[in-house]
Amino acid sequence: MSLPTLVNITEVCPRDGFQSLPVNISTDSKVEIINRLQKCGFSQIEVTSFVHPKAVPQMKDADEVLQRVIKEEGVVFRALIPNVKGLERAMKANVDKVKLMLSATDSHSLYNANSKTMEAIENFKPIVQRAEGTNIKVSGSISVVFGCPYEGEVPLDRLLTICERYEKLGITDISLADTTGVGHPVQVKRVIRELRQHYPDFHFSLHLHNTRGMAFANAVSGLEEGIVDFDSSVAGLGGCPYAPNASGNIASEDIVHGFEEMGIRTNTDLDSIIDVGQHLAEKFPKESNSFILKAGKSKDLVKAPGKQVKIGEVEGKH
Ligand SMILES: CC(C)(COP(=O)([O-])OP(=O)([O-])OC[C@H]1O[C@@H](n2cnc3c(N)ncnc32)[C@H](O)[C@@H]1OP(=O)([O-])[O-])[C@@H](O)C(=O)NCCC(=O)NCCSC(=O)C[C@@](C)(O)CC(=O)[O-]
Known about the structure:
By secondary structure, this protein is of the alpha/beta class. The chain has helices at residues 13-19, 27-38, 62-68, 84-92, 106-113, 117-122, 125-131, 156-169, 185-198, 215-224, 252-261, 270-283, 291-295; strands at residues 8-11, 44-49, 76-81, 97-100, 137-142, 173-178, 203-208, 229-232. Keywords: Lyase, Metal-binding.
């Protein structure tokens, strides 16, 4: 098994993490968190989404957040958008890159975007035209790739058709999302292998939710199939409001820690990520979902205080 030595982590908490919070998060806090995340070394941050404020009220201050954030040099700001109006707002806010919002199934697409999948992708044409000749980059996404909460398993042919439509638009940078954390490592391997075989020139990345505890294993499956770009969210916040039982993304501190233990660099600063994670976990204890925040780093285990127990001392243990 040959693994990469360096991968890219895109931090998505300011969009995916904050969109799903059941309590309000102030504009001040969003600005502060984005400023702090930029100091953690992430090369790309999904800073917000420009969607209808009624569809996702937590993102209603997207324009103001972007006006107030102090952008560090070298950090790419990405925003999720559903339509041309979203693109216009993103351009005004000077984001570097947009990610088009698309679901693999009609049912999820109708809930999320008020249109079926193929209608939604048809509506991307004017976005691509509008972005042409400007500095803004356009990337794509596919939600519910590994299973839809309304339709179940998604046939491979459906994913291939969507990729074909993206290719016709000239969009080959595609985020594959496990929206409700139902994908398992064997399936992730199989799907990525098929997609890469059919579309070898595409750049696929993985956006994994840890709803069923399979996200890190799925990330490793992705690595084994040549994926080098992963999304994650500090403190494990996240979830699509239009997918029942959706919960947090894989925590940034968990994926960074796991990869670094495996000898794979991420060019991020784990301790700074943990600091931001602790801050968010204190603010949103019910929504945070992170192993490293609870257990600490593997390397710190030997320093952990506690009674030394000799073999045979614990009753009932052999
Ligand atoms: C797609 C729409 C807009 C369709 O919503 P619609 O109602 O069909 O839109 P419309 O085009 O008919 O327009 C209706 C009104 O919305 C306005 N409008 C239209 N667009 C915008 C915009 N961009 N920003 C602000 N306002 C907008 C538009 O101007 C108009 O205003 P009015 O004339 O009535 O005053 C709506 O359904 C929507 O905003 N959906 C977003 C849902 C969402 O953000 N979901 C969560 C993110 S996706 C996700 O979580 C998955 C992902 C990416 O994380 C990966 C994964 O894990 O799976």
